[in-house]
User: Which sequence fits this backbone?
């Protein structure tokens, strides 16, 4: 007894096989009787009927008792054969073809043939640091207040993992501590970090736009390699521009300080 997955389903009457005139028209619009289509597809008429009953192929065009199939049906049958070779069941193929016809689902996902992801080099070289709350308090010598802790969590510098804290970057953690050691309030450091984050995101968007309009036009096999080559160049550009901008700003601040006697007076302790 044939199962629902068995293409050798019982044969039935053949109302669509009577002879009739072959429709005329260009080769690209060729039409086939059922036996001709089965022969072109390399399957039996019985299997073709089974596929039709399972709605794996669209209904044929009918002229009276004659059923005409076309190249779309042939292409569908070849697709079914290829999917069966890859190990898909007829039930899975039916789901895939229904999704394809409806355009409502991701066919690549159903097929399991999503393209391999492009290897993207990590631009960040930061090392996370795990700390206890007590160790963090020692790092910042009384500056680890609830307000500063909340600001660090909001910025994404800190995350809670069980009874420990994880800082996203050893370098940023150490620089923040050095700034506090030099007398800057941690609240001011975090506020500056918030402003800096906004500007750095804008810089990253400039490079992302450049990549989108140039690098992503390359063959996929080259994209990962190109990104790896561009990483030190982008960092070099940002470092050079930041250095020159710092020179300009510091000179301007010192000139303003030198020209304003009030600003030169030492503040009262």
Assistant:
């Amino acid at each position: 007894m044939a199962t629902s997955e068995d293409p050798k389903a019982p044969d039935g009457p053949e109302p669509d096989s009577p002879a009739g005139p072959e429709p005329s028209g260009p080769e690209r619009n060729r039409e086939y009787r059922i036996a001709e289509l089965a022969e072109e597809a390399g399957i039996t008429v019985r299997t073709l009927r089974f596929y039709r009953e399972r709605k794996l192929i669209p209904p044929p065009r009918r002229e009276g008792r004659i059923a005409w199939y076309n190249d779309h049906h042939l292409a569908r049958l070849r697709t079914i054969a290829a999917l069966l070779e890859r190990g898909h069941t007829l039930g899975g193929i039916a789901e895939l073809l229904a999704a394809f016809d409806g355009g409502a689902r991701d066919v690549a996902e159903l097929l399991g043939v999503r393209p391999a992801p492009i290897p993207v080099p990590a631009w960040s070289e930061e090392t996370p640091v795990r700390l206890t709350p007590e160790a963090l308090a020692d790092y910042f010598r009384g500056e680890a207040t609830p307000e500063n802790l909340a600001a660090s969590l909001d910025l994404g510098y800190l995350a809670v993992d069980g009874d420990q804290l994880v800082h996203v970057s050893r370098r940023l953690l150490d620089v923040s501590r050095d700034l506090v050691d030099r007398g800057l309030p941690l609240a001011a450091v975090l506020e500056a970090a918030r402003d800096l984050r906004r500007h750095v995101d804008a810089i990253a968007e400039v490079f992302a736009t450049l990549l989108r309009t140039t690098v992503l036009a390359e063959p996929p096999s080259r994209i990962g390699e190109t990104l790896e080559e561009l990483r030190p160049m982008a960092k070099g550009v940002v470092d050079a521009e930041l250095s020159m901008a710092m020179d300009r700003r510091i000179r301007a601040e010192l000139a303003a300080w030198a020209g304003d006697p009030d600003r030169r007076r030492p503040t009262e302790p």
Q: What stands out?
A: Strands lie at 31-32, 61-63, 66-70, 129-131, 158-161, 164-167. The chain has two domains: 27-111, 129-264. The CA atoms of residues 100 and 107 lie 6 Å apart. Residues 27-111 form a domain with the Multidrug-efflux Transporter Regulator; Chain: A; Domain 2 fold (CATH 1.10.1660.10).
